[in-house]
Amino acid sequence: MHGATGRVVFVGAGPGDPDLITLRGWRILCEADVVLYDSLVDARLLEDLDAELVFVGKRCGDHHMPQEAITELLVRFARDGRRVVRLKGGDPTVLGRTGEEALRLSQLGIPFEIVPGVSSAVAAPALAGIPVTHRGVADAVCILSAHRQEDEPELSIPPYHPRTTLVLLMALQTVGTWSPQLLERGYPADLPVAFVNAGATARQRVVVTTVARAAADARSAALDSPTLAVVGRVVSLRDKLAAYEGALLRSRHEDAPVMHMLAFTAGGAREESCPS
Ligand SMILES: C[S@@+](CC[C@H](N)C(=O)[O-])C[C@H]1O[C@@H](n2cnc3c(N)ncnc32)[C@H](O)[C@@H]1O
Fold first, then answer.
1. What pLDDT digit, counting tens, does each position of 80-139 carry?
2. Which atom of ligand 1 is nearest to the CA of 91?
3. Segment 229-261, tens digit of pLDDT
4. By the number of CB atoms within 10 A of the CB, which of 31, 128, 140, 157 ranks highest?
């Protein structure tokens, strides 16, 4: 449908598994005329849509489309009277540049809505058996970008607090930078770190290491994108809760191949297989 005024809805696609989009997000997606989507969006969400699909994804170092061009596309489609969905991985407002795009729409008087999503920042750790808070262990969570802008070289790493969990998004490329910075800010060398790669998908892999060994173990595990890092004492809960990880992922991906879970300790690597 093309009316006089279109509108833009920012929809969170969830952390990986297409089942983890919200009901509202899914309904709005199904009614869209055009969908601008990112690289972390699961293709199954787009399969049967009766909408024009525009890939505007970005991967580290490979910007398919500059941010300004994406924003101007949203404006153009909305001014054409179309129902536009801007579909982003996880929650659209968590390190997703939704604010910038929405501000431009607001300046131009173009209606928009935000439909929150399940952020990978909490979902990927949870599905790896790591709750980001746990009574008596951690009562605060700090989600931060490990990606450095040229004009903002410092990462926003808070000083160490034993009851705060850090979740670093875009954690892989800069692990050689942030892990020494953690030590400088008082984080214990043996504090556990878990890398969660492709969380909430059949490819999910988890590497458990320490602050001191994070860079070396991430390198030897040859992790790829998307990967986040959880830093804090909650990582140790995985020993008791990870049994649930295999069962959950198996039930969600019935035809998934054998899933490999890697657990690294200071002494070396241990690989476990979890048949589907
Ligand atoms: C630009 S941020 C966007 C985050 C997104 N808005 C969210 O709420 O999940 C992208 C980063 O999120 C993390 N990420 C997204 N999906 C992930 C997943 N399924 N497993 C692990 N990390 C993920 C990775 O660190 C990735 O580099």
1. 999 999 999 999 999 999 999 999 999 999 999 999 999 999 999 999 999 999 999 999
2. 8
3. 999 999 999 999 987 665 556 556 554 333 333
4. 128
- Average of per-residue pLDDT across 153-172: 94
Hunting for tokens 């019935």 — which residue is that? 254
Residue type for position 144 = L
Nearest residue to 17 (alpha-carbon basis) of 54, 51, 45? 45
Catalytic residue among 19, 33, 38, 240: 38
Contact present, 177 and 158 (Cβ < 8 Å): no
DSSP string, 255-272: T---EEEEEEETTEEEEE
Classify residue 219 by its DSSP letter.
Answer: H
Q: What pLDDT, on a 0 to 100 scale, did the predictor assign at position 179?
A: 97
Q: Pinpoint the alpha helices (H) of the chain.
A: 23-30, 67-79, 98-108, 120-127, 175-184, 214-220, 238-241, 243-252
Q: How far is the CA of 226 from the centre of ligand 1 (A)?
A: 6
Q: Are residues 125 and 230 in contact, defined by beta-carbon separation less than 8 angstroms?
A: yes
Q: Can you list the domains of the chain with their CATH numbers?
A: 7-115 (3.40.1010.10), 120-274 (3.30.950.10)
Query: Cβ(88)–Cβ(58) under 8 Å?
Result: no
Q: What pLDDT is attached to residue 78?
A: 97
Query: Cis before residue 226, ω within 30 degrees of 0?
Result: yes
Rounded Cα distance between 259 and 251, Å, is: 12
In this model, does residue 72 exceed pLDDT 60? yes
Parallel, antiparallel or unpaired: strands 7-12 and 83-88: parallel
Q: Which residue has the tokens 């899933």?
A: 259
- Looking at residue 153, its amino acid is P
Within its chain, how far is the Cα of 154 from the centroid?
A: 21
CA of 200, closest atom in ligand 1: 19
Please say if the pLDDT value at position 270 is more than 60.
Answer: no
